Amino acid sequence: MKKTLIKNGHIWSAVDDFFGDILVEGDKIVAMGKDLAKSYSADEVIDAEGHYIFPGGIDAHTHMELPFMGTKAADDFETGTLAGLHGGTTSIIDFAIQTQGNSLSDCVNTWHEKAGGKSVGDYAFHCAVTDYNEKTAKEIPGLIAGGITSFKTFMAYKGALMIDDRMMLGLMGTVKEHGGLVTVHAENGDIVDTMVDHYKSQGLLSPKYHALAHPPEAEGEAVSRVMDLAHYKDSPVYIVHTSCRDSLERIKKNFLRDQRVFVETCAQYLLLDDSVYDKPNFEGAKYVMSPPIRKKDDQAALWSSLQCGHVHTVATDHCPFNFHGQKDMGKDDFSKIPNGAAGIEHRMELIFSEGVKTGRITMNKFVEVMCSNPASIFGLDKKGTLGIGKDADIVIFDPNQKHTISSKSHHHNVDSSIFEGWELTGKVRTVLSRGKVVVRDGAADQVERGQGEFLKRKPFNYSL
Ligand code: URP
Ligand code: ZN
Ligand code: ZN
User: Fold this and answer.
1) Which atom of ligand 1 is nearest to the CA of 157?
2) Helix locations, 352-392, DSSP H
3) Which residues have any ligand 1 atom within 6 Å of their CB?
4) What distance in angstroms lies between residue 113's CA and the mean position of ligand 1's atoms?
5) Ligand 2 centre distance from Cα of residue 421 (Å)
């Protein structure tokens, strides 16, 4: 088996750091320490002098090739995970979404077909349950045994994805009984639909009315409700793409009753504010996503919640649509603009530059929320930290290199970027995925279509 020695790096975990070397044999880390060259030989030596070394990132929220709102997300598993590798994200958890009326195994099989033989990064699935009934309930133990241990629910997108509270309660009970975790898109679908109808009836049809039709109250109400449902069922719950102060206030109050609530936010909610919807020439459509981009005050609340541990993970909700040919389906009606944007490639670099470099979070917190927490919450026991016996998913990172995000040079398969022109400090240089160098000095290196593996996840750890 090939041995690779990475030497002289500044190595980071979620709790500590040291200067030293990492020895990789095959797909695993086999030694860590100082001056490993004195005790071990290697086939390849990578000098990481002046660089940070941290675990491959895990993006716990992506939608590759998602069929949605009359079109489909522009990245497939190959292009999307390749973009991820360029940005130091070596594993994703994508959403296999049930079509109402079909079985859960149908949707999981469909997602295996999309990803298998194509994905270049490792991948796992959450199973999104859009139709909970006696039949689908019976499928859940088998899915958990097969490594799909988290179950997504939508409290919005009525008529397509949304489930009601009765289904949510049933699902929480079954999932807990068999060792899984329920995750939730928390927005009150009825508030949203009422507001959409209201603005449309007034002829208010530009992209900014998408944002106004998704008020923070709709998110906050759904967050409160799902926490109450989970408390009643004595079930942990993971809230995806949390975007606003309203939700965070309710989550923090909820901690008083000792309930286990895991909170995810996404890079765009930490970094962008709702002035993006005032851009001319329909450009606000690029930022149409649910929940929408919020106010600067919401950003402040998210950063401090991240700092103090109330927000556990930073994901992307990567769901790209081209500005030309997809977003413009809603040129005359914001409710027809496909919801979502690209993010996987720049998640690590954005949060490093805007979080660590600015002093908002520590480097250890960065590793915790980008790598270690997604691994432990979602049962990826070989991922998320650098240690002996772990998968050798390793990022070698220049903390001082400056670069600018542009849709002309990014690897997302989409014609625009919500971070166009952002100047960042800190760049991914070299990436190993299960021991193989896949990015070298910023460029893809001998990446083979289909090299990514399906990750069977462990049941949820109720001691977390
Ligand atoms: O706008 C979004 N977030 N699109 C993807 C689907 C979802 O709600 O996560
Ligand atoms: Zn969502
Ligand atoms: Zn999503």
Assistant:
1) 8
2) 363-367, 373-377
3) 63, 185, 289-290, 317, 319, 339-340
4) 22
5) 26
CB distance 42 to 5 below 8 Å: yes
Tell me, yes or no, if the two domains 3-54+390-400+423-444 and 56-377 fold the same way. Answer: no
Using CA positions, which residue lies closest to atom 5 of ligand 1? 340
Distance CA 317, CA 185 (A): 11
Per residue of the chain (464 residues), give pLDDT as tens: 999 999 999 999 999 999 999 999 999 999 999 999 999 999 999 999 999 999 999 999 999 999 999 999 999 999 999 999 999 999 999 999 999 999 999 999 999 999 999 999 999 999 999 999 999 999 999 999 999 999 999 999 999 999 999 999 999 999 999 999 999 999 999 999 999 999 999 999 999 999 999 999 999 999 999 999 999 999 999 999 999 999 999 999 998 998 999 999 999 999 999 999 999 999 999 999 999 999 999 999 999 999 999 999 999 999 999 999 999 999 999 999 999 999 999 999 999 999 999 999 999 999 999 999 999 999 999 999 999 999 999 999 999 999 999 999 999 999 999 999 999 999 999 999 999 999 999 999 999 999 999 999 999 999 99
Tokens of 194: 């009422």
Q: The whole model's pTM is what?
A: 0.98
**Domain layout of the chain by residue ranges:** 3-54+390-400+423-444, 56-377
Centre of ligand 3 from the C-alpha of residue 387, in Å? 31
Distance CA 424, CA 402 (A): 6
CA dihedral 209, 222, 258, 175 (to 10 degrees): -120
CA of 330 to the centre of ligand 2 (A): 19
**Burial (0-12, 13-18, 19+ Cβ within 10 Å), 304:** middle
The closest-lying atom of ligand 1 relative to the alpha carbon of residue 156 is 8
CATH class name, domain 56-377: alpha beta
The H-or-E segment that residue 77 falls in is helix 77-86
177 Cα distance to chain centroid: 26
Q: How much distance in Å is there from the Cα of 192 to the middle of ligand 2? A: 13
Q: Any idea which fold 3-54+390-400+423-444 has?
A: Urease, subunit C; domain 1 (2.30.40)
Ligand 3 ion: nearby residues, β-carbon < 5 Å: 317
Atom 9, ligand 1: residue with shortest CA distance: 317
- Determine the 3-state secondary structure of 203 from DSSP: coil
Q: Which atom from ligand 1 is nearest to the alpha carbon of 161?
A: 8
Cα(29) to ligand 1 centroid in Å equals 36
Q: Which ligand places an atom closest to the C-alpha of 340?
A: 1
